[in-house]
Amino acid sequence: MKWSLMxxxxxxxxxxxxxxxxxxxxxxTVPVYQGVPASLTRMREVxxxxxxxxxxxxxxxxITANLGSQRRSVTVREDSASIDRxxxxxxxxxxxxxxxxxxxxxxxxxxxxxxxxx
Length: 118
Fold this sequence. Notes:
The protein is α+β, with helices and mostly antiparallel strands.
């Protein structure tokens, strides 16, 4: 009896667990235009056009945003490995996209396309 109750409980837990799509993350880099602050401002404009809500103060030097829901997010930071030795400024931004439906790469590429369009 104990065994069958344990199997039944485990079966119910597995059956009632939410089924989720595959979480995906994607990282790409974009060039810095006219300095990091101006590039972050441009990236913020791109994300705003995609109806993003921001969860970090823009003066912190990076962007954290959710798109549509908590299931899609974007983080933008300067690429510390791309420092120009003459100006000590980063020359690239890292854009990290996360999507619970497995479409992080497509999201990042759309952000890059819009960012690079002048």
